[in-house]
Every structure is written in C-alpha cells, then in structure tokens.
Amino acid sequence: PVQRTGKINDSREGLPIVQEEHEIVDAINTNPVTVICGATGCGKTTQVPQFLYEAGYGDPDCDSHPGAVAVTQPRRVAVTSTARRVAEELNVPLGGDVGYQVRYDKNVGDNPRIKFMTDGILLREVQADFLLRKYSVVIIDEAHERSVNTDILLGLLSRIVPLRAALAAEGKAVTPLRLVVMSATLRVEEFVENRKLCPTPPALLQVATRQFPVTVHFSRKTEHADYVGAATKKVLAIHRKLPPGGILVFLTGQREVEMVCRKLRDAYPLHGKRVNAAESSDDEDEDSGDAMDDTYDVDAIDAGGEDLGGDDDEPDFDGEDDMSDAASDISEEDEVLVMGGEGVGEEEAAEAEAAWTRANAPSTGLGADKTADGPGGLNVLPLYALLPPNLQQRVFQASPDGSRMVIVATNVAETSLTIPGIRYVVDAGRAKERVYERDASLSRFQVGWVSKASADQRAGRAGRTSPGHCYRLFSSAHFVDEMKAHADPQILGVPVEGVVLQMRAMGIDKVVNFPFISPPERSALAAAEKTLQILGAVEKSRHGEEIGPLTDLGRAMAVLPISPRHSRMLFAAAQSGVGGCLSPAIAIAAALSLDSPFLRNSSETVEDDEEEGEAKATPKGPPPHVRFHHPASDALSAAQALLAYDACKSSDAVTFCSTNRLHEKTMREMSDLRRQLKRLVVNLATTSKFGDDVFPNAAVLNELDDSNQAASSMISLPPGGDVERTLRQALCAGWADRIAPNEKSTKATRYVPALLDAAVFLHPTSSLHRSSPDYVVYTDLLQTDKRAYIVGATGIEP
Ligand code: ADP
Ligand code: MG
C-alpha cells in the first residue's frame, strides 16, 4: 500500500482527475485503447500512472498485468520532472519502482513499475522487442502535440495491441497490452476517428476540469517588432497594479528569456533597492555585446507610460474587489473575452479569488503584494529547454514572502509543465521552430505565430488556482485571421530518413502503407529513400518496388540512436581497417549529433539563431576553446573538445567548460551519447550479427578498451596522418551529397553548395577561416536573419 505524506494527499485532493480514478482504471482494465482528455494541470501525467500502480499494474506477482507502466512524453524536461514528482508522491525512491530514461540521462532500476521516457526511447524499445513484453500498459502522453515519434508510436501500437491480444488469447506467455492516449485538447479526433488506427472505437474519457474563467485581453494593435519590450512592459504594469499571483510570460528563445529576466530583476529586485535604469543598461552592453535591442525604458513605464492608462488613482485591492476593471485598465485592448470556467460557478470563482488574495496579502495589511514603498520584489525565473534541470526545478518552489513570481518561458511551459500559482499570462503569441527548406539540406530557426489552440493552452495556464487573466500581445483580428487552428503535425515538416530507416529495421517494408495519422508527403518519403540509398542503407529499388530492401549495413545503422548519416560515417571509419579511427569517429558522431558547444566571442556580431544553442555570447577576447580547433575540420574540433572534456575528472567538468568557454549542458550530453555509442559499438562487434563487411574485425575493440585508451592522444591529432585522412573520408561517406567548393573570390570563406544557388559562409566559430580549403564536406546549412552558414565543415581534397 502506498504511504503518501499528508502534504501530498492534500495536493492530490485538489486535482480534478482524482475524482475519476475509478472510471479511469475501469476503462483501462476493460478496453484495449483508452483516450483521456483533460485540460493541462488536471493531473493526467502525475496521477494516471499512480492509479495504475495502485491497481496492481507493474506488480510482477499480478497475473493480469505484471508488466510495467510505460509513460512517454515528447519533451525531455517533462520526463525528468514528472518522474521525480511521481516518485515523491508515491513516497518511493527515484530509480526504484519509479524510473526515467531520456536520450542522455537515465535513472531507472532493473524492474521499474513505472517508467517515464521520451517517445524516442520507447520507439527504440519497440525496435528491440516489437511486442513490448516488458510492459502491460503504454501511456502516450501529450498526444495532441503530434511529435514525429508520438505519431509513429501510435501507428505501431495500433498493430502491437491487437497482436498482444491475439497472442494472449492463444495462451502464449504474454498478457494483453493496454494503450492509453492522453491529451490536453480534443485534438485526438484524427486518431480516434482513423479506422485504420482504431478499428474499434476506443474508450473516450473527458476529465471534467475545474478550470477557473480566464479573461483574455487582446491588444488593440499587434506588436510586430518589439514584442519582447511589450512583454516586459506588461509584466511591470501587472506587478504595479494588480493583486498577487504569479505571472507566466511566453517568449520564443533563451536569449529573449534571459534578457527579459534581467530587465525585470533590475526593475524590482527580490532583495534590496531597484538599480537605476542607466546602470542596468550599462551592464547589459558589457555582457551581451550588440545583440540586445534596447528599445524600451523601464523607468518610463514606471512613471506611468501613456499606453498603460493613468495611474493617478491606484486601484485598491482589499481582497473583495473585483479586479477586472484594473485588469482591463492595464491593457490597451480592443476586446476582452472570457474563456473556460467549466465546472466552476460564479460565486465559487469569486470566492476562490478573494481567498487567494487574502492568503497572499502580506501582513502589512496593505493588500496585494504591496509594501509601504510600493510593489514588492519580483522573483524572476527563466524556463527553457537548455536550462540545467536543477534550475528548471525552481519554478515549483514557493516564492519568498512578499515577492511575486514571474516565470519567463519558452514554449516548454505551454503544456508539459504545470507551474503552480499562475494567475496572469502574458503571451507574445509566438514560438521558435526549426523549418527545413529545399530538400531538407537548409534549415532556419524561425519565429512564427503559434496556433489558436496553443494560444488558448497558454491562456488556460492562468486559470488553474483562481480566475485569471491572459494578456495577448496581438489583436483579436490577428488571432482570428492570421493564426491557424492547430499547428501542423511535426512529421509534415521534418526530414524523415531516420524514421524510415527505423521503420524498415522493424520490418515495415511498405512505409507508404503505414497507418500514419498524417502521412508525410510522397516527396518527403522519396527524399528519405534517396538519402538512404546514397548511404548504402537500402539497395536500389528493383522492378517497380517502392523501395529497395534494407542492407546489412542499414540494419546495423538502425541500431545506433543517431541519424543515418552519423551512423554511416561511424561505420565507414570502422570499415576502413585503419587503426586508431574508431574512437575518434565515435567522438565525432556524438559531437555532431548535438549543437556546437563552442560559445561565441561577443565581438562577433552574428545572430546566432540555433534554437536551443542560441545566446551563447560571451565576453570579449579570443575564445579559449581555440585550443581544441583542428585546422581543417570543425567536426574534429568538436570531437577534440569532447575527448578533452571526457579526459578530465568529472569534478572538474564545470570548471573545464567555463575556462574553455564550452556549453556545459551540451558537453555533458555529448559525453553521455559518446559513452552510449561506445557501448553499442562494442555490442555490435561482439555479437557479430552483421558480418565482417559491415563491422570488420574484433580488433577494433582493442581501440575502445578503456584501459588502453588511445582517445586522449587524439586531443592533438597531428593533421595529415592516416587517421585523419580516413576520418575525412568517413565524413564524406555520411554526407556525400553535401560537398561545396570554395567560391575562390576575395572572400575566401564563402562556399557554394551544389544544392543551393547561393553562397554560404563559414560559421564564426569555425576553425577553417585561416586554411579556407578548396572543398568542404558539411553536415548542415543554417539560415539566419543575415546569412546562411555552413555547419560542421571539414576540408577535403577533391
Ligand atoms: P496534466 O498532465 O494534466 O497537465 P500534471 O499531472 O502534470 O497535470 O500536474 C498536476 C499537478 O501536479 C499540477 O498542479 C502541478 O502543479 C503539480 N506538479 C506537476 N509536476 C510537479 C513537480 N515536479 N513538482 C511539484 N508539483 C508538480
Ligand atoms: Mg501532462
């Protein structure tokens, strides 16, 4: 029996889904497929796995469902944070009954009863065991996000569930597998109504949420340029004029988030007095170079900027007043609408609001979060994907007395994380996403408008604990006319060669016949096939076959959790027969699978728009990581940095990164990936499942023997040797269609890829500027606002 603490029991009590435990467990017990819809924060992710746990799922002694509960999430942040929370709620250690696994990190014992993981991890597990025998139930969470892996998993599970049922009925040693699909919106209709996926309609449960009404305030005009400044202004106005309650701000990227955090902290420091605006902007110039666009002035707003409405008569919040006048007052809006409020009566809403205000008013009796000197401090917390987990976790902690919590977040806060105590949402209405162009060789990180569904999700975050307000920095006309109903499923916008290879490795030969919820375009599938052919993963298609058979090499490539190109490079090095290549090749594969870890020098004025790896600007001076630079290869430079990082003691890792200006989280993930690849390569070589031509000799294993670690000698691999030549050739095998000649103009750093009719530039952090080789092989082209850059370039001889 579960022994929850009193505090946990209290917080569970308030969750709408807890009322429906019985119906939910009953539905899952009796239906192969159950769909659970409920607004964000109703308790789906944290509670449903616990219901199943208490119903005996995952108990090896249970006859009907001894297998574990698998829970997938599209985002890594959500995996670690919810696993931790569920272990805490169940009062069991993390890594015991409750565990988690994401690509670069895991804390899971041998026999977890509940395992949280990203959808990508489960996809790999399907590849290893198509029947997923370890599990008795799979919960696909956040299905409405429509990530590629989630979509594929749903397609696969639509086959696995009936298969397990049939085998169980025949008395084979398996129990039936239950599928639970959870979603924050009703956008699962495409799944539920797809007869190919769901021949018999699934049980559909809608959790009656007690969502308090949220008043949505549209701006009169849509802020097109300085939405970051507009968001800052809005937060400050809310803080000055409106009753207590956390503020959640939605922006698009790390750089914006950190900038706004700085502005807000300067305006209302948590402890002590405000810094004046002049000082704070000096500060900023120093640590962020010219990247910041300082077009607004905190003090001007504070003095009562004209667009905020006069603040001569400060509204008086004594806990009973309706705040909506004041709430509208701070907004120059064209329209207000109230959404939500399901399951909550007007009186109850008013009461919750008053109770909230009373509970949060400081003992000065001044009401709101005001002290005699005006508003209190702001407890400003950033939230974005690359933030270290311990800092991400801070959003769940209570703010110091008398302060107001402001969370400045990217899209990660939209659905996967429920942050307590949010009463105000400020929504810029945008998100940054990677957009692929021209047969996927060029991509850009683009800030675009989110969908109406996303905007409503964001607004809903304000109504969890009491009635709330959402300030949209765009007009209602813009919302209606310009924003789409739903975001496109991810599978329609990304290259699919990795997905196709994995599906083929699972024995799905006719990928076009796969029950996709939204099938990728034929041209995308054709491009994937072509790439796989170039890489030697599939044979040329013969007599009208849609796609040729998978080769042994292709099967081996599918074993590695990296893209087919990276795998191909690694195998090319292994097959070369040149001693000393494998270890650096693994390091290269790991390094190239993540964003460049090299922090930029701020004297370079390039907009670095890599999604999560953005805002790596650092103080002036030559970046110390030049010592890892290989004169003719950015791929080798990154690998050298990685090997040096792995050679230092783990206690020194943080210092190592800061002295060498390397992005620490990126380095840690690369290092984990490298270790994982080494393990898998050793497996491949020892099981010799694939024959000598794929993975030639067991002698390569000596290279990977840690006691005989030649890796550290690679830190200064002398240019021009056999090993280096082989590695360049291996890179060419992985990216054979991505080779570009130097433009040979006065600008020696311009290259002209065959696939593109325009010149592209070496990235400022590239080590190739001096040598400017005649030809380079590259891994990606990244378009920024200013120009297109070559990523992962290596000089080659034609
Ligand atoms: P849903 O999946 O329906 O969006 P969740 O199960 O994620 O809802 O959240 C339910 C409640 O648990 C929320 O009130 C949320 O604040 C709380 N919660 C979730 N994760 C954590 C955590 N890591 N720490 C503290 N509270 C959490
Ligand atoms: Mg959830």
Automatic annotation (TrEMBL):
EC numbers: 3.6.4.13
Gene Ontology MF terms in the entry: ATP binding; hydrolase activity; RNA binding; RNA helicase activity
Keyword Hydrolase among UniProt keywords: yes
Residues annotated as domain Helicase C-terminal: 322-507
Segments forming domain Helicase ATP-binding: 25-204
Region span, Disordered: 275-332, 601-627
Keywords, alphabetical: ATP-binding, Helicase, Hydrolase, Nucleotide-binding
Enzymatic reactions: ATP + H2O = ADP + phosphate + H(+)
Family: Belongs to the DEAD box helicase family. DEAH subfamily.
Protein name in the entry: RNA helicase
Species assigned in the record: Ostreococcus lucimarinus (strain CCE9901)
Range within the parent protein: 179 to 976 of 1153
